[in-house]
Amino acid sequence: MMKRTIAKQTSCDISMTIRVSIVVALAIQCLSVFAAPEQQYAAILEQAVSSFDENYQQSWAYTEESTRAGVTRTGRFDPSLPLKDRWQLLSIDGRPPAKKEISKYLKEKKKRAEEARDEGQGPDSLLAPETLELIEETDDYWLFNFLPTSTGDRAEMMEYLDGKLRITKKGTTIEYIDIRSKRAFKPRFGVRIKELVSYFEFRRAAVEGPMVPSAMEFRIHMKALGLINVNEQVKIQYSDYEYVGEKSIRL
User: Fold this and answer.
1) Strand, coil or helix: what is 33?
2) Hey, how many other C-beta atoms are within 10 angstroms of the C-beta on 6?
3) Residues 18, 107: one domain?
4) pLDDT of res. 247
């Protein structure tokens, strides 16, 4: 009788242990499914950013077509060439450039390269991951709002801007980042910005290549000291990516 009682008790204990284990396993699974939205969004962003190569300019040559003030300049960048020859101005509005135009272009590119050394190069350098907020989801993409972030003089303007980020579900890659002013604002004394837009698109450099920039637009309309009126717009297209990593020159 005692043996039957012990056996029955042992069986009940085992059954209870199994049920508890199942409940715990289900609870853990539910916790992972219903994790804080911020954690889920940050994980999606991390995966999307991982497909972007911040050092793509060390391994990929590409063509850049920029339009500003109605003038279109087409240039080619190739990191496999010596430093002074990496940028080549191919044409201006479809015609061969003059020597002065080439000199000006190369000075601009040198200055931009120096400025870029102190800036983040990846898409994640433009936003604070913890501020991601899902505003739309379809079978093809997630669309997020976010708080833009920056450094230096531009940091003080971030509170006046809104950001949107679209991530494709196929491959989990960033499709575009759109940052623009909510309304007219005064970031500092004597300066009033009526409109500010920074827009970036991304694509794969090749079928199996990393994500790289494919287009960007920068637009600003501002007035300084009530006298100086600035209305600038720059549009850039990036194309014809070619991998030259094996022969690129490291400096």
Assistant:
1) helix
2) 10
3) no
4) 62
